[in-house]
Design a protein that fits this description.
With 280 residues, the chain is of the alpha/beta class. It has 3 domains: 5-84, Arc Repressor Mutant, subunit A, CATH 1.10.10.10; 90-157 and 254-278, Periplasmic binding protein-like II (D-Maltodextrin-Binding Protein, domain 2), CATH 3.40.190; 163-252, Periplasmic binding protein-like II (D-Maltodextrin-Binding Protein, domain 2), CATH 3.40.190. The protein contains 10 helices and 10 strands. The strands form 3 sheets. Strands 4-3-5-10-6-9 form a 6-stranded mixed beta sheet, sandwiched between helices. β1 (50-51) and β2 (57-58) form a beta hairpin. The protein is globular. It starts with a helix and ends with a helix.
Length: 280
C-alpha cells in the first residue's frame, strides 16, 4: 500500500475545505484530478472516506484515516527537509504573535530545531504592529503578522484567512449597558476588529479587562469577566462562541509571512517549513 504526497494533499485539503473544488484550487489541480486522487486512496483502503454532495464530509472511516494521513504527510515533509538540506547552519530571528506561537507553531518550531540543530533559532512574541515596526528596523529576519486587510502588507506571503468570532458568556452580549470586553493593549488587530464592529453597529462597549497575553485573555473570558474576539480555529476548550445574532459580524483575519532576504538558506528553509505547516 502506497500513499503519494499529492494524494494525501488532496485528501487533507478536501477534508479541511469540505469541497473537492476548493481543494483543487489549493493544490493547483483540476477538480476531477482531486476526485481521482481521493478515489485512488479509497480503492487502496477499501472504504469510503467522504460522503459526497454539495459539500463533502468525512465518513467515520475518513475521520480515522485523517489522523494517519496527517502523520504520514508530516513524516514525508520531515524526510525531505532532513535529506535535501542536511547541513543548514546560521541564525534566524523569527517574530510572531503569542497565540500563533503557542497554538499553531510550538511543535513546528521544535521540529525544525530538531531536524536542523546547527541553525540558531531565536523566537520573540509580540503584537503585529510592534513586530512590523521591529522588522523594518532590522530586528527580525522573518515575521508572521495578522492584519484585517491583506493589502496592508502587499509584499508578504499569504498564509491563511480565518473567520473571527465573539467568545464568552452569551449573556454578557444581552446586557442593557455597554458590552464588557477582554482586550489586548493597542495595537492589536483583534481589539481593533471588536471595537470597529461594535461602534459600527452603534453598540456601546467598555474595557472590562486589559490583558497583554493570550493566556490572560482566555482566563478572563473563562471567568466570565467579558467577551473577546479570536479566530474560530483558536477557540479553546471550555469557551463557546457567542451566537451570531447577538453581536455584529467581525469578518476575517488575514495572516501573512514576511522575509527579509533570499540569501540566507536557513531562513528560506524555515519559511518553507512554516508555509507547509499551514498548507495541506
Amino acid at each position: 500500500m502506497s500513499f503519494d504526497t499529492l494524494g494525501l494533499r488532496c485528501f487533507l485539503e478536501a477534508a479541511a475545505a469540505h469541497s473537492f473544488t476548493k481543494a483543487a484550487e489549493r493544490v493547483g489541480r483540476s477538480q476531477s484530478a482531486v476526485s481521482q486522487q481521493v478515489a485512488k486512496i479509497e480503492a487502496e483502503l477499501g472504504v469510503r472516506l467522504f460522503e459526497r454532495g454539495r459539500e463533502v464530509h468525512l465518513t467515520a472511516e475518513g475521520q480515522v484515516f485523517l489522523s494517519y494521513a496527517r502523520r504520514i504527510h508530516d513524516l514525508q515533509r520531515e524526510v525531505l527537509d532532513r535529506f535535501r538540506e542536511p547541513d543548514l547552519a546560521g541564525e534566524v530571528r523569527f517574530g510572531l504573535p503569542e497565540d500563533f506561537a503557542s497554538i499553531y507553531l510550538s511543535e513546528v518550531l521544535a521540529e525544525f530545531a530538531r531536524i536542523h540543530p546547527r541553525v540558531v533559532l531565536t523566537i520573540e512574541c509580540d503584537l503585529t504592529l510592534n513586530l512590523m515596526r521591529r522588522f523594518r528596523e532590522g530586528a527580525f529576519d522573518l515575521v508572521l503578522v495578522k492584519v484585517n486587510r491583506p493589502e496592508d502588507f502587499p509584499h508578504g506571503v499569504d498564509v491563511l484567512d480565518e473567520p473571527l468570532a465573539w467568545l464568552g458568556n452569551a449573556a454578557l452580549a444581552e446586557l442593557d449597558g455597554p458590552v464588557p470586553l477582554v482586550l489586548a493593549p493597542q495595537p492589536c488587530v483583534y481589539r481593533a476588529a471588536a471595537i470597529a464592529a461594535l461602534e459600527g453597529a452603534g453598540r456601546a462597549w467598555r474595557q472590562a479587562v486589559l490583558s497583554p497575553s493570550h493566556m490572560g485573555t482566555i482566563a478572563a473570558v473563562r471567568a466570565g469577566l467579558g467577551l473577546t474576539v479570536l479566530p474560530r480555529p483558536m477557540i479553546p476548550a471550555g469557551i463557546s462562541a457567542v451566537p451570531a445574532a447577538l453581536l455584529p459580524p467581525l469578518g476575517d483575519i488575514h495572516v501573512s509571512l514576511l522575509k527579509r532576504d533570499n540569501t540566507n538558506a536557513a531562513l528560506t528553509s524555515l519559511e518553507g517549513f512554516v508555509l507547509r505547516h499551514f498548507g495541506p
